[in-house]
Amino acid sequence: MTDKPKTLQLKAKAPAGKPAAPRAPVRPRGPARARPLSEVKAERAARDAAWAAQGPQGDDRRPRTDTDRRAARPDGPGGPGARPERPVSRQRPEGAREAAPRRPPEAPRPSRPPRDTRPDLARVGNANGEIRLNKRMAELGLCSRREADEWIARGWVLVNGQPAIMGQPVPPDAQVEVLPQARHQQAGQVTILLHKPVGYVSGLPEDGHESAAVLIKPQSHWREDRSGRRFEAVHTRGLAPAGRLDIDSTGLLVLTQDGRVARTLIGEDSGVEKEYLVRVHWAPNGPKGAGVVTQDVQAAFPAERLALLRHGLNLDDQPLKPAQVDWQNPEQLRFVLKEGKKRQIRRMCEQVGLHVVGLKRIRIGRVVLGNLPVGQWRYLGAGEGF
Prior knowledge:
Blueprint: H1 37-53, H2 56-61, H3 66-72, H4 121-124, E1 131-132, H5 133-139, H6 145-154, E2 157-159, E3 162-163, E4 169-170, E5 176-178, H7 180-187, E6 191-196, E7 240-241, E8 250-256, H8 259-266, E9 274-282, H9 297-300, H10 303-310, E10 314-315, E11 318-319, E12 324-329, E13 332-337, H11 344-351, E14 354-364, E15 367-368, E16 377-379
Parallel strand pairs: 8-14
Antiparallel strand pairs: 1-4, 2-3, 2-5, 6-8, 6-16, 7-8, 9-13, 9-14, 10-11, 12-13, 14-15
Helix pairs in contact: 5-6
């Protein structure tokens, strides 16, 4: 029997210009299709039912749990290859490292010494009647406390002929002397009277509103100013308002560099009068409620409530000082106060059923607003005083 010679068969090449037919890509065999969980559960339940029908022998021959499977093995629990059970006792074997003893409780730390609660000498003085030098100088009307501290630091203050030191307590009979340098500096300080328009705040800018101090410039200086002072840029430095005038109010506002003026107007013991003209509506149920009266308010306003405005109201849980309150005309009241709480007149009127629609301050002490135009200012004259 002879073997037939094997011949090598070569596939014919595709003719030029005609591309070969593409071959289907060989795809790897994908994973088996996942069976639905319900089908798997049904098959398992049927198999369990079949084994249960065979009786106890079927149960013995088919362990149904992993614990039963391990028990059926020769090396399972109880078998020849079973591991010895762990002793139940958890006593530490001999030679083991002893546990570190617990730390004894720490002793309580000593409490801090109480803080020094001695009263401020500048406010109440000490047992010998001594008070701080800066307060004494303010009481004598020499300057403000801030100016006193500045003068003491510069060596411009003598106490009983000796240079003063900061925070020095002095008795009431101490001789306080101020050197000429301090007097010369004080003479250059100015006090400005401004007719504040509505929309400006008295102090620092807030809530997008400018301070009234920005109006102190040469263009707004009143031409009829009779003080004899000439405007200088230094006059705008350190200006502070001596008293409040809220953003919705207009009238006389005092801005000063002189601490004596500030203490006179807004000091703790200040009794300088401030006079206001206040236009009101009778609004017993609020400005948007029923029964608002805008004309001839005087006729509708009860007289007993006018008495409350004069004396008997409280603000911030404190009784107000007696005030002068009278009708200027049927829609306008005239207030004269000796204190200046925040928005005091508006809050007083609100308590008695009045709604303030306009407020203008026309006098502070002996200084009147007069003909000063809105938005313009002038200097406090040498012969003027509050």
